[in-house]
Amino acid sequence: MFRAGRTRDGTLALTRAGLPPGTQILSASRHGSDRWARSAKVVAKLPDGTVRPYFLRGSAGESGKQMMRGEYESLLAIWNVVPTFCPRPIGWGAFKSKPNTYYNLSVFHERVSSPPDPGAFATMLARLHTRSKSPDGRFGFPVATFFGEVLNERVGADSWEECFTAAIRHLLALDEEINGADEALVELREELIARVIPRLLRPLVKIKPALIHGDLCLSNAGIGDSDSVEGSGNVMVWRPAAMYAHNEFELGMWRAVVNGFDRRFLRAYLKQVPISEPKSDFEDRNALYALRHVIACSIRYPGSAKYRLAIADEMRALVRRFSPGPDKALPLPGVDEEETLVDEVDGDGATVLVGTGTVAPPPPLNKAAKSEKVGNRAKSKSIVGGKLVKRL
Protein backbone atom coordinates (compact mmCIF):
# COMPACT_ATOMS: atom_id res chain seq x y z
CA MET A 1 0.00 0.00 0.00
CA PHE A 2 2.84 2.36 0.88
CA ARG A 3 6.47 2.27 -0.13
CA ALA A 4 9.51 4.17 1.04
CA GLY A 5 9.68 7.51 -0.70
CA ARG A 6 5.98 7.38 -1.67
CA THR A 7 4.32 8.69 1.44
CA ARG A 8 2.78 11.92 0.19
CA ASP A 9 -0.61 10.48 -0.65
CA GLY A 10 -0.61 8.54 2.61
CA THR A 11 0.12 11.73 4.55
CA LEU A 12 -2.76 13.46 2.79
CA ALA A 13 -5.02 10.51 3.62
CA LEU A 14 -4.08 10.66 7.28
CA THR A 15 -4.68 14.41 7.38
CA ARG A 16 -8.03 14.23 5.63
CA ALA A 17 -9.05 11.35 7.86
CA GLY A 18 -8.89 13.57 10.92
CA LEU A 19 -5.26 13.81 12.03
CA PRO A 20 -3.73 17.29 12.34
CA PRO A 21 -2.17 18.97 9.28
CA GLY A 22 1.56 18.50 9.31
CA THR A 23 1.36 14.85 10.33
CA GLN A 24 4.26 12.92 8.82
CA ILE A 25 4.50 9.22 7.99
CA LEU A 26 7.66 7.64 9.43
CA SER A 27 7.05 4.10 8.21
CA ALA A 28 4.41 1.90 6.64
CA SER A 29 4.31 -1.87 6.30
CA ARG A 30 1.74 -4.43 5.30
CA HIS A 31 -0.14 -5.91 8.21
CA GLY A 32 -2.87 -8.55 8.12
CA SER A 33 -4.13 -8.08 4.57
CA ASP A 34 -6.93 -10.36 3.42
CA ARG A 35 -8.46 -11.34 0.09
CA TRP A 36 -10.71 -8.31 -0.20
CA ALA A 37 -8.67 -5.46 1.29
CA ARG A 38 -5.08 -4.50 1.93
CA SER A 39 -3.95 -3.36 5.33
CA ALA A 40 -0.93 -1.53 6.71
CA LYS A 41 0.54 -0.45 10.00
CA VAL A 42 1.45 3.21 9.62
CA VAL A 43 3.67 4.96 12.16
CA ALA A 44 3.10 8.70 12.07
CA LYS A 45 4.64 11.70 13.77
CA LEU A 46 2.10 14.30 14.88
CA PRO A 47 2.88 18.03 14.75
CA ASP A 48 3.56 18.09 18.51
CA GLY A 49 6.25 15.42 18.07
CA THR A 50 4.17 12.50 19.38
CA VAL A 51 4.73 9.26 17.47
CA ARG A 52 1.67 7.03 17.12
CA PRO A 53 0.82 3.85 15.17
CA TYR A 54 -2.32 3.67 13.02
CA PHE A 55 -4.07 0.94 11.09
CA LEU A 56 -4.92 1.71 7.47
CA ARG A 57 -7.12 -0.51 5.31
CA GLY A 58 -7.87 0.06 1.65
CA SER A 59 -10.02 -1.37 -1.13
CA ALA A 60 -11.05 -0.25 -4.61
CA GLY A 61 -14.28 0.27 -6.52
CA GLU A 62 -17.82 0.87 -5.33
CA SER A 63 -17.71 -2.24 -3.18
CA GLY A 64 -14.45 -0.98 -1.64
CA LYS A 65 -16.10 2.34 -0.86
CA GLN A 66 -19.00 0.61 0.87
CA MET A 67 -16.65 -1.70 2.74
CA MET A 68 -14.40 1.05 4.10
CA ARG A 69 -17.32 3.24 5.11
CA GLY A 70 -19.19 0.31 6.64
CA GLU A 71 -16.20 -0.72 8.75
CA TYR A 72 -15.57 2.85 9.88
CA GLU A 73 -19.22 3.41 10.86
CA SER A 74 -19.29 0.03 12.63
CA LEU A 75 -16.16 0.85 14.65
CA LEU A 76 -17.53 4.29 15.47
CA ALA A 77 -20.84 2.88 16.71
CA ILE A 78 -19.09 0.33 18.95
CA TRP A 79 -16.48 2.83 20.18
CA ASN A 80 -19.22 5.30 21.17
CA VAL A 81 -20.77 2.67 23.46
CA VAL A 82 -17.71 0.83 24.84
CA PRO A 83 -14.59 2.82 23.88
CA THR A 84 -12.01 0.25 24.99
CA PHE A 85 -13.68 -2.66 23.17
CA CYS A 86 -12.42 -1.72 19.69
CA PRO A 87 -9.77 0.47 18.04
CA ARG A 88 -10.66 4.15 17.95
CA PRO A 89 -11.80 5.03 14.42
CA ILE A 90 -10.17 8.09 12.84
CA GLY A 91 -11.90 8.45 9.46
CA TRP A 92 -12.49 7.08 5.99
CA GLY A 93 -12.36 8.48 2.45
CA ALA A 94 -10.74 8.25 -0.99
CA PHE A 95 -7.04 8.50 -1.77
CA LYS A 96 -6.32 11.70 -3.68
CA SER A 97 -4.10 10.06 -6.29
CA LYS A 98 -6.47 7.07 -6.61
CA PRO A 99 -10.01 8.49 -6.57
CA ASN A 100 -11.54 5.03 -6.95
CA THR A 101 -9.58 3.57 -4.03
CA TYR A 102 -10.82 4.05 -0.47
CA TYR A 103 -9.33 3.79 2.99
CA ASN A 104 -10.41 3.34 6.59
CA LEU A 105 -8.09 4.61 9.33
CA SER A 106 -8.08 3.68 13.01
CA VAL A 107 -5.67 3.51 15.95
CA PHE A 108 -3.40 0.48 15.68
CA HIS A 109 -3.76 -2.39 18.13
CA GLU A 110 -1.92 -5.66 17.67
CA ARG A 111 -3.96 -8.78 18.40
CA VAL A 112 -1.54 -10.62 20.66
CA SER A 113 -3.75 -13.53 21.72
CA SER A 114 -7.24 -15.01 21.66
CA PRO A 115 -9.61 -14.00 24.49
CA PRO A 116 -8.21 -16.10 27.39
CA ASP A 117 -11.06 -15.44 29.79
CA PRO A 118 -14.66 -16.11 28.67
CA GLY A 119 -15.97 -14.09 31.58
CA ALA A 120 -14.01 -10.94 30.74
CA PHE A 121 -14.95 -11.15 27.07
CA ALA A 122 -18.61 -11.81 27.85
CA THR A 123 -18.67 -8.79 30.15
CA MET A 124 -17.51 -6.47 27.36
CA LEU A 125 -19.88 -7.99 24.83
CA ALA A 126 -22.78 -7.74 27.27
CA ARG A 127 -22.00 -4.05 27.82
CA LEU A 128 -22.13 -3.44 24.08
CA HIS A 129 -25.45 -5.23 23.70
CA THR A 130 -27.18 -3.80 26.76
CA ARG A 131 -25.90 -0.22 26.74
CA SER A 132 -26.39 0.49 23.04
CA LYS A 133 -29.44 2.17 21.58
CA SER A 134 -30.55 2.36 17.98
CA PRO A 135 -30.55 6.05 16.92
CA ASP A 136 -33.99 5.79 15.33
CA GLY A 137 -35.30 2.86 17.35
CA ARG A 138 -35.25 0.57 14.31
CA PHE A 139 -33.47 -2.66 13.48
CA GLY A 140 -30.73 -2.67 10.85
CA PHE A 141 -27.89 -0.25 10.18
CA PRO A 142 -27.73 3.11 8.36
CA VAL A 143 -25.03 1.99 5.88
CA ALA A 144 -24.08 -1.23 4.12
CA THR A 145 -21.50 -3.40 5.88
CA PHE A 146 -19.53 -6.52 4.98
CA PHE A 147 -19.58 -9.93 6.64
CA GLY A 148 -16.03 -10.73 5.53
CA GLU A 149 -16.32 -9.98 1.82
CA VAL A 150 -20.07 -10.65 1.71
CA LEU A 151 -22.26 -7.58 1.37
CA ASN A 152 -24.86 -6.84 4.05
CA GLU A 153 -27.30 -4.45 2.43
CA ARG A 154 -28.45 -1.33 4.22
CA VAL A 155 -31.63 -2.29 6.09
CA GLY A 156 -34.02 -0.39 8.30
CA ALA A 157 -37.05 -2.12 9.78
CA ASP A 158 -39.51 -1.57 12.61
CA SER A 159 -39.55 -5.24 13.60
CA TRP A 160 -36.78 -7.80 14.03
CA GLU A 161 -38.76 -10.31 11.99
CA GLU A 162 -38.83 -7.94 9.02
CA CYS A 163 -35.14 -7.09 9.36
CA PHE A 164 -33.98 -10.70 9.63
CA THR A 165 -36.20 -11.83 6.76
CA ALA A 166 -34.75 -9.15 4.49
CA ALA A 167 -31.20 -10.17 5.45
CA ILE A 168 -31.80 -13.88 4.79
CA ARG A 169 -33.54 -13.17 1.47
CA HIS A 170 -30.58 -11.05 0.38
CA LEU A 171 -27.99 -13.69 1.30
CA LEU A 172 -29.89 -16.53 -0.35
CA ALA A 173 -30.39 -14.45 -3.50
CA LEU A 174 -26.68 -13.65 -3.57
CA ASP A 175 -25.82 -17.33 -3.13
CA GLU A 176 -28.15 -18.19 -6.02
CA GLU A 177 -26.58 -15.50 -8.20
CA ILE A 178 -23.10 -16.86 -7.56
CA ASN A 179 -23.70 -20.60 -7.35
CA GLY A 180 -26.77 -21.02 -9.54
CA ALA A 181 -30.44 -21.74 -8.90
CA ASP A 182 -31.46 -24.80 -6.92
CA GLU A 183 -35.14 -25.71 -6.91
CA ALA A 184 -34.96 -27.50 -3.56
CA LEU A 185 -33.31 -24.50 -1.90
CA VAL A 186 -35.96 -22.17 -3.32
CA GLU A 187 -38.75 -24.33 -1.86
CA LEU A 188 -37.01 -24.54 1.51
CA ARG A 189 -36.42 -20.78 1.52
CA GLU A 190 -40.10 -20.03 1.01
CA GLU A 191 -41.10 -22.50 3.73
CA LEU A 192 -38.53 -21.01 6.08
CA ILE A 193 -39.76 -17.46 5.47
CA ALA A 194 -43.46 -18.34 5.54
CA ARG A 195 -43.45 -20.69 8.53
CA VAL A 196 -40.26 -20.83 10.59
CA ILE A 197 -39.22 -17.18 10.83
CA PRO A 198 -42.66 -15.90 11.91
CA ARG A 199 -43.00 -18.74 14.42
CA LEU A 200 -39.63 -18.03 16.07
CA LEU A 201 -39.24 -14.26 15.75
CA ARG A 202 -42.75 -12.84 15.97
CA PRO A 203 -43.07 -13.77 19.68
CA LEU A 204 -40.06 -11.57 20.48
CA VAL A 205 -42.29 -8.62 21.27
CA LYS A 206 -40.22 -7.24 24.15
CA ILE A 207 -36.79 -7.05 22.55
CA LYS A 208 -35.14 -3.77 21.58
CA PRO A 209 -32.46 -3.28 18.92
CA ALA A 210 -29.01 -4.03 20.35
CA LEU A 211 -25.76 -3.10 18.64
CA ILE A 212 -23.89 -6.27 17.66
CA HIS A 213 -20.42 -6.74 16.18
CA GLY A 214 -21.90 -8.79 13.35
CA ASP A 215 -18.87 -10.93 12.41
CA LEU A 216 -17.73 -12.23 15.77
CA CYS A 217 -15.44 -15.14 15.00
CA LEU A 218 -12.41 -15.79 17.18
CA SER A 219 -10.02 -14.23 14.64
CA ASN A 220 -11.84 -10.90 15.06
CA ALA A 221 -11.50 -10.86 18.84
CA GLY A 222 -8.66 -11.08 21.33
CA ILE A 223 -6.32 -9.16 23.58
CA GLY A 224 -5.09 -5.95 22.03
CA ASP A 225 -1.60 -4.59 22.55
CA SER A 226 -0.04 -1.56 20.94
CA ASP A 227 2.58 1.15 21.10
CA SER A 228 -0.44 3.37 21.68
CA VAL A 229 -1.64 3.98 25.23
CA GLU A 230 -5.25 3.77 24.09
CA GLY A 231 -6.78 0.55 25.37
CA SER A 232 -3.54 -1.43 25.40
CA GLY A 233 -4.01 -4.86 26.97
CA ASN A 234 -7.81 -4.83 26.79
CA VAL A 235 -10.22 -7.41 25.47
CA MET A 236 -10.98 -6.06 21.99
CA VAL A 237 -12.75 -6.77 18.71
CA TRP A 238 -11.74 -5.89 15.15
CA ARG A 239 -13.35 -5.72 11.68
CA PRO A 240 -17.00 -5.39 12.71
CA ALA A 241 -20.06 -5.54 10.47
CA ALA A 242 -22.31 -3.78 12.95
CA MET A 243 -26.06 -4.05 13.08
CA TYR A 244 -28.88 -3.15 15.46
CA ALA A 245 -30.41 -6.58 15.96
CA HIS A 246 -31.70 -9.09 18.48
CA ASN A 247 -28.69 -9.55 20.75
CA GLU A 248 -28.92 -13.36 20.37
CA PHE A 249 -28.23 -12.97 16.65
CA GLU A 250 -24.58 -12.41 17.63
CA LEU A 251 -24.50 -15.89 19.17
CA GLY A 252 -25.68 -17.70 16.05
CA MET A 253 -22.23 -17.62 14.53
CA TRP A 254 -20.82 -19.33 17.64
CA ARG A 255 -22.91 -22.42 16.89
CA ALA A 256 -20.39 -23.56 14.29
CA VAL A 257 -17.65 -25.60 15.88
CA VAL A 258 -15.04 -24.05 13.59
CA ASN A 259 -15.89 -20.53 14.82
CA GLY A 260 -13.66 -20.80 17.88
CA PHE A 261 -16.06 -19.58 20.57
CA ASP A 262 -16.95 -22.66 22.60
CA ARG A 263 -19.72 -23.21 25.15
CA ARG A 264 -17.69 -21.53 27.91
CA PHE A 265 -18.24 -18.19 26.17
CA LEU A 266 -21.94 -18.90 25.66
CA ARG A 267 -22.40 -19.78 29.34
CA ALA A 268 -20.49 -16.70 30.44
CA TYR A 269 -22.58 -14.44 28.21
CA LEU A 270 -25.92 -15.91 29.27
CA LYS A 271 -25.05 -15.40 32.91
CA GLN A 272 -24.97 -11.68 32.20
CA VAL A 273 -27.68 -11.28 29.59
CA PRO A 274 -30.87 -13.32 30.10
CA ILE A 275 -32.29 -15.39 27.28
CA SER A 276 -35.17 -13.62 25.56
CA GLU A 277 -38.72 -14.83 26.08
CA PRO A 278 -39.91 -17.33 25.11
CA LYS A 279 -36.84 -19.07 26.54
CA SER A 280 -38.01 -22.43 25.23
CA ASP A 281 -37.32 -21.20 21.67
CA PHE A 282 -33.68 -20.34 22.32
CA GLU A 283 -32.18 -23.43 20.71
CA ASP A 284 -34.35 -23.09 17.59
CA ARG A 285 -33.62 -19.36 17.28
CA ASN A 286 -29.91 -20.12 17.58
CA ALA A 287 -30.14 -22.67 14.78
CA LEU A 288 -32.03 -20.15 12.64
CA TYR A 289 -29.47 -17.42 13.30
CA ALA A 290 -26.61 -19.80 12.47
CA LEU A 291 -27.93 -20.07 8.91
CA ARG A 292 -26.36 -16.73 8.09
CA HIS A 293 -22.86 -18.10 8.68
CA VAL A 294 -23.46 -21.19 6.52
CA ILE A 295 -24.91 -19.16 3.63
CA ALA A 296 -22.01 -16.70 3.82
CA CYS A 297 -19.52 -19.58 3.55
CA SER A 298 -21.28 -20.78 0.41
CA ILE A 299 -20.95 -17.28 -1.06
CA ARG A 300 -17.29 -16.95 -0.06
CA TYR A 301 -16.31 -20.25 -1.65
CA PRO A 302 -18.11 -20.44 -5.00
CA GLY A 303 -18.58 -23.93 -6.32
CA SER A 304 -18.23 -25.66 -2.95
CA ALA A 305 -20.97 -28.28 -2.91
CA LYS A 306 -20.55 -29.01 0.81
CA TYR A 307 -21.75 -25.57 1.88
CA ARG A 308 -24.85 -25.67 -0.31
CA LEU A 309 -25.63 -29.08 1.13
CA ALA A 310 -25.19 -27.63 4.61
CA ILE A 311 -27.64 -24.80 3.82
CA ALA A 312 -30.23 -27.31 2.64
CA ASP A 313 -29.71 -29.58 5.66
CA GLU A 314 -30.07 -26.76 8.17
CA MET A 315 -33.15 -25.24 6.53
CA ARG A 316 -34.75 -28.65 6.08
CA ALA A 317 -34.26 -29.46 9.78
CA LEU A 318 -36.00 -26.25 10.81
CA VAL A 319 -38.81 -26.60 8.27
CA ARG A 320 -39.49 -30.19 9.29
CA ARG A 321 -39.44 -29.27 12.96
CA PHE A 322 -42.24 -26.79 12.49
CA SER A 323 -44.13 -28.57 9.72
CA PRO A 324 -46.90 -29.83 12.07
CA GLY A 325 -47.91 -26.21 12.66
CA PRO A 326 -46.80 -23.07 14.49
CA ASP A 327 -47.70 -24.42 17.95
CA LYS A 328 -46.25 -27.91 17.60
CA ALA A 329 -42.61 -28.66 17.08
CA LEU A 330 -40.66 -31.82 16.35
CA PRO A 331 -37.28 -32.39 18.01
CA LEU A 332 -34.26 -31.23 16.05
CA PRO A 333 -32.51 -34.22 14.46
CA GLY A 334 -29.80 -35.59 16.74
CA VAL A 335 -30.83 -33.45 19.73
CA ASP A 336 -32.64 -34.91 22.71
CA GLU A 337 -35.68 -32.73 23.38
CA GLU A 338 -35.00 -32.83 27.11
CA GLU A 339 -31.41 -31.72 26.57
CA THR A 340 -32.15 -28.84 24.20
CA LEU A 341 -31.94 -26.38 27.09
CA VAL A 342 -29.90 -27.11 30.17
CA ASP A 343 -30.44 -25.41 33.50
CA GLU A 344 -27.21 -24.40 35.15
CA VAL A 345 -26.70 -22.54 38.40
CA ASP A 346 -23.82 -20.14 38.83
CA GLY A 347 -22.07 -19.21 42.06
CA ASP A 348 -24.72 -16.61 42.94
CA GLY A 349 -27.55 -19.06 42.53
CA ALA A 350 -28.81 -17.45 39.32
CA THR A 351 -30.26 -19.86 36.80
CA VAL A 352 -29.17 -19.63 33.18
CA LEU A 353 -30.35 -21.60 30.19
CA VAL A 354 -27.67 -22.85 27.86
CA GLY A 355 -28.30 -24.30 24.42
CA THR A 356 -26.46 -27.53 23.79
CA GLY A 357 -26.75 -27.96 20.05
CA THR A 358 -23.76 -27.59 17.76
CA VAL A 359 -23.40 -27.67 14.04
CA ALA A 360 -20.52 -29.82 12.93
CA PRO A 361 -18.37 -28.45 10.10
CA PRO A 362 -19.36 -29.86 6.70
CA PRO A 363 -17.46 -33.04 5.79
CA PRO A 364 -14.56 -32.71 3.32
CA LEU A 365 -15.46 -33.07 -0.32
CA ASN A 366 -14.83 -36.45 -1.88
CA LYS A 367 -13.80 -36.79 -5.50
CA ALA A 368 -17.39 -37.13 -6.68
CA ALA A 369 -18.50 -34.03 -4.80
CA LYS A 370 -15.54 -32.06 -6.13
CA SER A 371 -16.63 -32.86 -9.66
CA GLU A 372 -20.05 -31.38 -8.94
CA LYS A 373 -18.76 -27.90 -8.16
CA VAL A 374 -21.10 -25.14 -9.22
CA GLY A 375 -19.58 -22.41 -11.39
CA ASN A 376 -16.01 -21.91 -12.52
CA ARG A 377 -14.77 -19.11 -10.32
CA ALA A 378 -11.53 -19.76 -8.47
CA LYS A 379 -11.61 -19.77 -4.68
CA SER A 380 -8.87 -17.15 -4.55
CA LYS A 381 -11.21 -14.53 -5.96
CA SER A 382 -13.30 -12.43 -3.62
CA ILE A 383 -16.95 -11.95 -4.43
CA VAL A 384 -18.94 -8.99 -3.18
CA GLY A 385 -22.49 -8.31 -4.22
CA GLY A 386 -22.15 -10.84 -7.03
CA LYS A 387 -19.06 -9.12 -8.45
CA LEU A 388 -15.34 -9.61 -8.03
CA VAL A 389 -13.72 -7.23 -5.58
CA LYS A 390 -11.34 -4.92 -7.39
CA ARG A 391 -8.02 -5.09 -5.58
CA LEU A 392 -5.55 -2.27 -5.08
Automatic annotation (TrEMBL):
Organism in which the protein naturally occurs: Sphaerosporella brunnea
The keyword Kinase appears for this protein: yes
Coiled coil, from the record: none
Protein name: protein-ribulosamine 3-kinase
EC number annotated for this UniProt entry: 2.7.1.172
Top-tier EC class: transferase
Catalytic activity of the protein: N(6)-D-ribulosyl-L-lysyl-[protein] + ATP = N(6)-(3-O-phospho-D-ribulosyl)-L-lysyl-[protein] + ADP + H(+)
Family matches, as InterPro entries: Fructo-/Ketosamine-3-kinase (IPR016477), Kinase-like_dom_sf (IPR011009)
Keyword Transferase: yes
GO molecular-function term, one example from the UniProt record: kinase activity
Gene3D superfamilies: 3.90.1200.10
Stored PANTHER family: FRUCTOSAMINE 3 KINASE-RELATED PROTEIN, PROTEIN-RIBULOSAMINE 3-KINASE
